[in-house]
Each structure stands twice: as C-alpha cells, then as structure tokens.
Amino acid sequence: MAEVVSFKKDAATGQAPISVAVNDGVARLTLANPPANALSIAVMETLMDELDKAAADRDVRVVVIASTGKVFSAGHDLKEMTARRGDGDRGRAFFERTIRLAADLMLKITHLPKPVIAEIDGLATAAGCQLVASCDLAICTDKSTFCTPGVNIGLFCSTPMVAVSRAAHRKQAMEMLLTGETIDASTAKDFGLVNRIVPQEYLSQVVQKYASVIASKSPLTLKIGKEAFYRQIEMPVEEAYDYAARVMVENMLVRDAEEGIGAFLEKRHPEWTGE
C-alpha cells in the first residue's frame, strides 16, 4: 500500500504544492499546483525537503518527479516574481533568492545519492525544462513539448541553459535558447533531453518499470556510480580514467560487489545490504 502525504501549503494558493507517494522503494514526488505547476518558492523548498527525506530513507531507492495537469512545469512563477518589483530594491533580493534556490534544487538532484527520473506529460518550459534536464533519466509522452522561451520576453534562460547544455547537444541547446521555440517529444529525444517517448496511457507504467529495475540494484552501487558519472563527465579524458579506476577499485572492495559477483558466479539472486 502506497504512503501518501501532503506537505507545506503555498501561501498564495492555500494548496499543498507537492504530493508524495512511497511504494516498493520508489518515492514519487508530484507537482500538484496546476495549471502551471510553477516552481514557486514554496514548491522548490518543498521539493528540496522531500529530496532530503528520500536521500535519508534507506527504503527509498529511486525518486520519480511527475506532475498533474497538462503542464509538467512552466518554470518560475513570474507573477510571484513580478509582484516584488515594487520592493525598494526593485525585487533584486527576491530574484536572487529565487534563482539561487532553483540552482540549489537542480544541484540537489545531481548530488542526490539515488537516481531521479522525470516523468513528463505536457509542456516543460524554462526552469521546468531545466528540471527535466537535471534529472538522471527523463521519460515523456508523445504529446509532451519542451522549450526555453526566455529570449521571447527579454529574459535569456541563463540558468536553465546550465542543465540543458549538459543534457542536449551543444548546437541543439543553442537552438532552443536562441529561438525560444517549442520542440516536440521526438525532437527532444533527438536533442538528448529525454530517454524514451511513450503513449500517454502507458507513461506511469513505463516509468514504474524503469524505477523498479533500478531499485532492484545495490543502493550503494547506485550511489557510487551516480556520483562518479557526474564527476568524471567534467574531467579531461585522462583524468576521468584515473578517477574512474580509483572508484572501481574501491567499489570492488565493498560487500555488495563481493555479494553480486558471488551471486553471478553461483547463478543466484544477490542479497544487497547496502554496504
């Protein structure tokens, strides 16, 4: 039976911005403030709190970030931000807080010791596209669309650019950032933003299958591997090989690797201890 919990309410809407379900090793965090599922301060703070809880929960192996409604996420809450232009500093302090919080959220996903899968059904735009690009895997419906449209309103998507340019190929990322045009799911897959495209009716089923497969692996191995992936990807190739070799040797010495190799040789299922 899934555990469903409601959390801190958005002061503006009075609604809980995130719903949480934990079942069979998978924590499902659902953006629940349609129609825009905007990344307001309350939403981002709640997401970060729930990611921290998932990281600390030994029973959680994989995190899924999904949404309700027709928009996965429209990015930052522009109404929330515009309302602060009347502040004495024209909103600077609030803008800095919002953008810094978004960066911290994306980094938390990258540094989370557990894989994070984005489940997209609808539009992911601006910081919403950044959220997709920041997740380890992304699976979307054939009706999903993606864009970084800041250039259309005089605000270049500079922070979404960080994640998008690391997920998509360089020229494709620039195409999105310079034109601000919306791309369909097939183009997003060609660009490298998503892993799989599935019919809408099968989306949750496919995501759950991926999550279950990953959740069946050693949690320690997943932690080691995810950290190593993001560290080596920024290194020169020689340095990356030196680093990866050290990681692999240390990985070989942990109990789960000994158990996994032993189970493979003995033709049995491994019993992970996370050690």
From TrEMBL:
GO terms for biological process: fatty acid metabolic process. Gene3D superfamilies: 2-enoyl-CoA Hydratase, Chain A, domain 1, Lyase 2-enoyl-coa Hydratase, Chain A, domain 2. The keyword Lyase applies. GO terms for molecular function: hydro-lyase activity. It comes from the Bacteria. SUPFAM superfamilies: ClpP/crotonase (SSF52096). Keywords: Fatty acid metabolism, Lipid metabolism, Lyase, Transit peptide. Belongs to the enoyl-CoA hydratase/isomerase family. May play a role in fatty acid biosynthesis and insulin sensitivity. This is Enoyl-CoA hydratase domain-containing protein 3, mitochondrial. It comes from Ferirhizobium litorale.
